[in-house]
Design goal:
The protein is of the alpha+beta class. It has one domain: 3-Layer(aba) Sandwich (Aminopeptidase), CATH 3.40.630. It is built from 4 helices and 7 strands. It has a 7-stranded mixed β-sheet, sandwiched between helices. The longest helix is centred in the first third of the chain and has 17 residues. The radius of gyration is 14 Å and the shape is globular.
Length: about 150
Amino acid sequence: MKIRLDKLDSPEIIALLDEHHEEMRRHSPPGSIHALDLEGLKSPAIAFWSLWNKNELLGCVALKEISTDLAEIKSMRVTYKHQGKGIANYLMRHLLDIAIARGYKRLSLETGSMDGFDRARKLYEKFGFDYCGPFAGYVDDPNSLFMTKRL
């Protein structure tokens, strides 16, 4: 497996992000979807990585710098074919290593409160994320949960 900083221009990445947005629409009402679109992920404040096994895309994750002390996890996604194989753990370890190397003090995220987000919440809990209030411009929303981890 190889993880690489991605330019967000391959058909595989575009298809995976489309899949990600479709899943968000399936589980969240329109005003509660905080997944960034392709252009949003190309922001200079965001680094985006993809994970490949030879020529097969396994997953992706992005890191958005909020401040010199805080970054946010964005667009963490594993392809349907590779879910349940530890790929999300691999991506999370990579992201934590990057966040620590960049000197962030906290890593935070927003995820859904609905049942469709149970696996994601369990992953974040496993890696030591605690529930918290909204951050970085988010507002209280019954469809969102916020989590953070001190680094």
